[in-house]
Amino acid sequence: MPQLGRVIVxxxxxxxxxxxxxxGVALTQK
Length: 30
Description:
By secondary structure, the protein is largely without helices or strands.
């Protein structure tokens, strides 16, 4: 399945337990 979007995780963001964030294919990463 092609990856067409991206997610930018900003300040003051809580990422809960048992969460997986895969590396994106887009150039913008924060």
